[in-house]
Amino acid sequence: MSTRTAVVRLSSSCTVGQYRDHVAARDRSTIANFVLERFSERYLRPIGISPEHKNGFTMMAVSCLMIESLESFRRGWPDTRHKSQTAFQSFFSHWQEFDVFRPVSAGFYEHVRCGLLHQAETTGGWRIIRRGPLLAGRTINATRFVAALAGTLRTYSAELRQSQWDSEIWKNFRRKMDAICSNAT
């Protein structure tokens, strides 16, 4: 009886084996494009359907997943176990697009991220809408939030493309991807 090894896809155009080949070749550009593709496919495209079908709560729940994942890439964490709140605070501190969230990062984490994840609703008076400024008090514009998040992804991918292979951003990226590949095989 023959044993077939499953091909594990990390994105629509990249398998674990192909990713490892890109690493061996130190192909920064292809890997940076892969990151953009993986995050876009998993997070941004599913919530980018027509405006009349968008739901702010779904947009924010997916955004919270993406923030934690993207920050674990940036920091080189194999996972975010016992680091979730730190991930959100670090993310908001790092990306200028989210500077309005810096003073309320702990509240966002507790009442938006944890509220959506554990209660399927925001708590503590936080609201999610799809109009107005990015943040007004405890009201978040999910459409602007997702647009800003897409911008951070493009910036991160560009930083990978422009950075040297042995830089901290690449070492952290590879540490996270090693964990993903280990989990996938």
What this model shows, in words?
The protein is mainly alpha-helical. The chain has one domain. Helices cover 59% and strands 7% of the residues. It contains 7 helices and 5 strands; from the N terminus they run ββαααααβββαα. The chain has helices at 16-24, 28-44, 56-75, 84-94, 105-119, 142-162, 168-184, and strands at 9-11, 14-15, 127-129, 135-136, 139-141. Strands 3-5-4 form a 3-stranded mixed β-sheet. Strands 1-2 form a two-stranded antiparallel sheet. The chain is elongated, with a radius of gyration of 17 Å.
SSE layout:
Layout: E1 9-11, E2 14-15, H1 16-24, H2 28-44, H3 56-75, H4 84-94, H5 105-119, E3 127-129, E4 135-136, E5 139-141, H6 142-162, H7 168-184
Parallel strand pairs: 3-5
Antiparallel strand pairs: 1-2, 4-5
Helix pairs in contact: 2-6, 3-4, 3-5, 3-6, 3-7, 4-5
